[in-house]
Amino acid sequence: MQKTFTCLICPVGCEITVTATGDTIERIEGHECKRGIPYVTDEFLNPKRILTTTVKADGAQFPVVSVRSDKPLPKNKIFDCMEVLKKTRIKAPITMGQVVVEDILDTGVNIIVTRC
Amino acid sequence: MEIMDVVIIGAGAVGTAIARELSKYELNVLVVDKNEDVGGDASKSNSGIIHTGYDATPGTLESRLVVAANPMYDKLARELDVPFTRCGAILTAVSQEEYELLPELFRKSHENGVYDVEMLTAEQAKSLEPQISPEVKGGIYIPREGIIDPFTLVVAYAENAAMNGVKFMLSTKVIDIHLEDGRVSRVVTDIGEILTRFVINAAGLYTDEIAKMVNQCDFTVHPRKGQFYIMEKDIPYNIEKILLPVPTKHSKGKLASPTVHGNMLIGPTAEDLEDKEDYAVTAEGLEEIIESVRRLLPAASPKDSITQYCGLRPTKTPEGYKIEASEEVQGYIGVTGVRSTGVTASASIAGYVVDILADEGLELKPKVSFEPYRIGITKFNELSWKEKDELIRQNPFYGHVVCRCETVTEGQIIEAIQRPIGARSLDAIKRRLRPGTGRCQGGFCSPRIVEILARELNVPAETITKHRKGSEILTGPNRLGV
Amino acid sequence: MFETNYDVVIIGAGPAGLAAAIEAKKVGTQKVLIVERDHALGGILQQCIHPGFGLHIFNEELTGPEYAYRFIGQIKPLGIDVLLNTMVLDIHSDDKRLYAVNRERGVCNIGYKSLVLAMGCRERTRGAIAIPGTRPAGIFTAGTAQRYINMQGYMVGREFVILGSGDIGMIMARRLTLEGAKVKAVVEIMPYLTGLTRNKVQCLDDFDIPLFLKHTITDIKGKNRVEKVTVAQVDDNLCPIKGTEWDIDCDTLLLSVGLIPENELSKKAQVKLDPITLGPIVKQRMETSIKNIYACGNVLHVNDLADNVTVESQIAGMYAGLNALGKEFKPRKVTECIPGEYIRYIVPQKLEVTEDRQDISLYFRVKEPARNVTLEISSKGETIARARRQKINPGEMEKMKIKADAIDKLGDELIVSVAEVKS
Which domain holds residue A41? Predict the structure, then answer.
């Protein structure tokens, strides 16, 4: 299996190709510097992203309030987390950094409010 | 069930002008229109030029009505509080061929009864309008050509008619007209029937379809598309006079016109179509406009355009205004063949139609309480600082500027919604107050106006439309199905 | 009429206005006022709920509202006054007063010693790029859609095509996808991405959203609501190529086709504008052509990072504050910054050589992407500064410093250019 990634470590943005069998990386090609190797290894094996979205907020100035994951979440859990957050409602008063969902889907990541 | 004296089909310039004229008498008058707002189809995308009729075909009804209408606008604009300027127009000859046509056009103007035209040398044309092409060979100055806000004109006709007792049924489509003993008796619409003594067909593009309902259709109407560019206000080549091309055998040409709001208009194209709802602007059309207008105004550049639009002029075959009562179907009056000159002619058509109604036996008893004056929506922008301050103290909604490009306040938007012919859509607000016509084209204000409309009309924001049903702005709250 | 006077007045409470206000206060001015048209401080950051802010300034990745909060939190403790829901309608630069309106106070007539323009920018519209077609509902600029979704909690469509690979457009592609919509394509007329690569990776690639470079939209169809758009490839002159068109069914078109500094008020104050940036012409202390009026942030030129806006606005705020305190910087010479080959514009446009010498940062954009280049600042034929870049891109702002000790070498002009291109 081959997969190509755009490296985001520096502005050059190398197109780096990973060749692998299952989870075993066999070859990494296209990186102009060695910083690309750990980047694509992570991207290939365990990509993570910060999730930002909104949840319904009752009694607040706007009907929704913005939230995010306090740490990057596994990429493949993003849509499952969205499902949870679509059903989440919080009530005013709302404070910045307030935890909305603790340890979402047993990832060890909390969802916190980013607006007050 | 109440019997109307007159049902007017079509709430464009002509329909609403007739409605206002009839509101001077003790009559039960109803205007029906398929659209969600007054303004019609052709009227709302008109160039806004109040013609003198100098170039009409002499001897025609169009010539007579346009020539008669032009002088009426000073008083009408004052009564109805509509922005109107007699800016004057220059018929601009750029080629020798065009130059040689001027004497003929000058003579034609006289034949139409427009005697205050003046022949211009190239130098005179340049000094009247410094932006005119240096290639200009000469021209004709038509001092009484004017510009009006066509949206406000129609809204004003309609509001003043409504103030004086005329009823309006919008978002109502006429499906059929029933006769009894050879006389119109009922107008069938998609939401119910209306009993009436007279029906006036002022349906513009759709006059043929309405005429068919009473079997009085000896003509066809097809749309002639006219695309326009609207330019930014702040351009270095703004003009004060309308620049008209000399019509030649090959082309009618495109014009450049100032508008009452300060955005120059250039166009239109003239494309004959079948589809009465084809409001698409085309790349070819836009290119043609620039190429053509640059002959008159070399600086014109598409880069300075703020938006583009197109209108559909009703084009009747056979051509020509035809405004008359049917001999076969009593009580039916067709106002057909009214084309792009209709915004201008609306003022005189109204009186012309009232005469026809009188001839047909409608008794016209003057209404003592008729109020000719309509005061438009507060012009916040034109108030002094002191006046603005006092207004906000009386009503704090005027202290909330919703549209920053055109400086429109929440107080004005609420007024537009609450007036006799209340705005119900984003476009209806835009036509009345111009939020969304500025540089950001509604990017900043439209989310706020949607919320104000929803709040004032007490409906969910998802039901607010751009114009008619089916043009909802939002597709519902986030997370459909939750 | 409500009348008041301040040392420094800042118009706009986005990242630019907030940073300027804080610095203006910190240099020791007594009375600082921010005038903001929205109901809250933070400007556009409030609707930018995505991460990516603060990496340069705070060394951590924040969302827009969190980034804004770092500054908003300082406003009250510093004793900076704020007028919210207040729209400035006019500036009279000769008698140093501005006119604004709000619900509570009516017309506010506010005097200033220094004024900071920090009104930000607006989005380029469909009208500005003249996309042919009908005019149905369902055409939004990306930022407008962002406000509907992130602030008001509404959805604006189900199936989307996005024109323009600007950052907001790509960020909205991800946001819409998370909300359950289908983003069918991002279409970019240029042969390169106009936003940041990071956003392409994390907003488009992550969700398999196709990006079509060198393509544009040539037609919009639909009478009431958008029904489809026509996409076509463009040639090197950016003109659509006949025969390459295809239709994409969608109910919504988002436009992310550029931002334009919002300078209507600047024009009222008679501030001179740069025809390329469309923002005020400024000197290194962010002073405009009109004395006592400063400008910073996206009103000056469109930035890709809020962090840059903050840095630039701190300078504007500091000098606006010092100016209000009566400090003057007498110029001995003025140097014009001239964009050389491959450079589109430079901010500041002019440098004043004064007694007080500080390092000066020049911000500029290149015209075309290139790899392995040397950027050079020169004056009177002499190199003032050089910098190597592995990659340059019109979508990413470049920055170079002129050291304080090099300032005396400046002549009447300095030129920024791409000196060498190594392939």
Answer: 2-45
CA dihedral over C268, C270, C271, C272, signed as positive or negative: positive
How far, in Å, CA of A22 to CA of A43, rounded?
14
**From first to last of its 423 residues, what are the pLDDT tens digits of chain C?**
999 999 999 999 999 999 999 999 999 999 999 999 999 999 999 999 999 999 999 999 999 999 999 999 999 999 999 999 999 999 999 999 999 999 999 999 999 999 999 999 999 999 999 999 999 999 999 999 999 999 999 999 999 999 999 999 999 999 999 999 999 999 999 999 998 889 999 999 999 999 999 999 999 999 999 999 999 999 999 999 999 999 999 999 999 999 999 999 999 999 999 999 999 999 999 999 999 999 999 999 999 899 999 999 999 999 999 999 999 998 889 999 999 989 999 999 999 988 888 899 999 999 999 989 999 999 999 999 999 998 898 888 999 999 999 998 999 999 999 987 765
* Strand A24-29 to A73-74 pairing: unpaired
Same domain? For A59 and A41 the reply is no
Decide: C294 and C316 in contact? Cβ < 8 Å: yes
For residues A36 and A79, membership in a common domain is answered with no
Q: How many structural domains is chain A composed of?
A: 2
pLDDT band at B250 (very low <50, low <70, confident <90, very high): low
Scan for tokens 């959203």, then name that residue: C209
B478 band by pLDDT with thresholds 50, 70 and 90: low
Neighboring chain A residues of C152 at a CB cutoff of 8 Å:
62-64
Encoded tokens for A26: 């066999």
Closest-CA distance, B399 to chain C, in angstroms, reads 4
Residue showing tokens 């189900």: C158
Q: Where are the domains of chain B?
A: 3-44+150-219+318-359, 89-143+222-314, 380-463
Residue B7's identity, in one-letter code, is V
**CA dihedral over C175, C177, C181, C185, signed as positive or negative:** positive
Query: Do residues A38 and A56 both lie within one domain?
Result: no
- Range B3-44+150-219+318-359 classified under CATH 3.50.50.60: yes
Chain B 441-480, residues with CB within 8 Å of chain A CB atoms: 477-479
pTM: 0.94
Fold of B380-463: Arc Repressor Mutant, subunit A (1.10.10)
Of B118, B117, B135, nearest to B126 by C-alpha is: B135
The span from the CA of B186 to the CA of B198, in Å, is 9
Of A6, A50, A61, Cβ closest to residue C201: A6
Query: How confident is the model over B423-458, as pLDDT tens digits?
Result: 999 999 999 999 988 888 999 899 999 999 999 999
**Amino acid at the residue C23:** E
Phi/psi at A86 (5° precision): -65, -25
Superfamily classification of domain B89-143+222-314: D-Amino Acid Oxidase, subunit A, domain 2 (3.30.9.10)
At A66, which CATH number? 3.10.530.10
Best mutation target, C45, C174, C182, C202, to test chain A (most A CBs within 10 A): C202
Neighbours of chain A (3+ CB pairs under 8 A): B, C
Question: Is the domain of A68 the same as that of A110?
Answer: yes
Q: Where are the beta strands (DSSP E) in B110-236?
A: 118-121, 138-142, 146-148, 167-169, 174-180, 183-189, 192-201, 220-231
ipTM comes to: 0.94
Q: What is the mean pLDDT of chain B?
A: 95
Question: Is the CB of B478 less than 8 angstroms away from the CB of A87?
Answer: no
In this structure, are residues B85 and B277 in contact, taking their beta carbons and an 8 Å threshold? no
Is A87 an interface residue toward B (CB < 8 Å)?
Answer: yes
Q: What are the residues facing B409 on neighbouring strands?
A: B401
